């Protein structure tokens, strides 16, 4: 069971976990043991609340297929159990990360002091630039 929040959990029956052989170098051990984990989680068929389903299917993420299935392959560790835990943790983190509700920004007005500083800075720059021009009445 994966705990997402206080009220949202995913039962193990909704997860499809299969053991496969890991890829890459590793010698004899990696060639004969199925230590990697392939986890599949169907978002639409799950018991998640509609808000979670909508947020997850609406986002474009490399772990979520267009059909709404989360596919995670864990092969970092040498043991199958540790890879299983890593895959479950990655699924939980993915769901939490994609369903965070951002705070709305409240518009604020600039303070009077900041307006004065801005105008003084503009005036200073204007006088500096006006001094760079040709002098009037100066002999050439």
Secondary structure layout:
Elements: E1 2-3, E2 9-10, E3 15-20, H1 28-32, E4 36-42, H2 50-58, E5 69-74, H3 80-98, H4 112-131
Antiparallel strand pairs: 1-2, 3-4, 4-5
CATH topology grouping of one domain: Double Stranded RNA Binding Domain
Q: Which stretches of 5+ consecutive residues score pLDDT under 50? A: none
CATH architecture of one domain: 2-Layer Sandwich
The coarse overall form would be elongated
Whole-angstrom Rg: 29 Å
Largest sheet features: 3 strands, antiparallel
Number of DSSP E strands: 5
What is the average per-residue confidence, as pLDDT, rounded to a whole number? 86
The share of residues in helices is 25-40%
Distance between the termini: 88 Å
Beta content: 15-25%
Spatial order of the strands forming the largest sheet: 3-4-5
CATH class of one domain: Alpha Beta
Structural class: alpha+beta
Alpha plus pi helix count: 4
Structure description:
The protein is an alpha+beta fold and 140 residues long. It has a domain at 2-98: Double Stranded RNA Binding Domain (2-Layer Sandwich), CATH 3.30.160.20. It has helices spanning 28-32, 50-58, 80-98, 112-131, and strands spanning 2-3, 9-10, 15-20, 36-42, 69-74. The strands form 2 sheets. The chain has a 3-stranded antiparallel sheet, with helices on one face. A two-stranded antiparallel sheet has the order 1-2. β1 and β2 form a beta hairpin. The longest helix is centred in the C-terminal third of the chain and has 20 residues, at 112-131. It is elongated. The model has no long low-confidence stretch (mean pLDDT 86).
């Amino acid at each position: 069971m994966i705990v997402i929040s206080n009220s949202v959990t995913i039962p193990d029956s909704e997860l499809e976990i299969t053991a496969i052989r890991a890829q890459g170098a590793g010698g004899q051990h990696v060639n004969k043991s199925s230590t990697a984990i392939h986890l599949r989680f169907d978002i639409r068929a799950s018991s998640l609340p509609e808000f979670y389903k909508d947020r997850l299917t609406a986002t474009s993420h490399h772990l979520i297929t267009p059909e709404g299935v989360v596919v995670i392959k864990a092969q970092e560790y040498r043991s199958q159990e540790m890879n299983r835990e890593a895959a479950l943790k990655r699924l939980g983190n993915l769901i939490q990360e994609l369903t965070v509700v951002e705070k709305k920004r409240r518009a604020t007005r600039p303070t009077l002091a900041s307006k004065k500083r801005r105008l003084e800075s503009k005036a200073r720059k204007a006088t500096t630039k006006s001094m760079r021009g040709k002098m009037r009445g100066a002999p050439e």
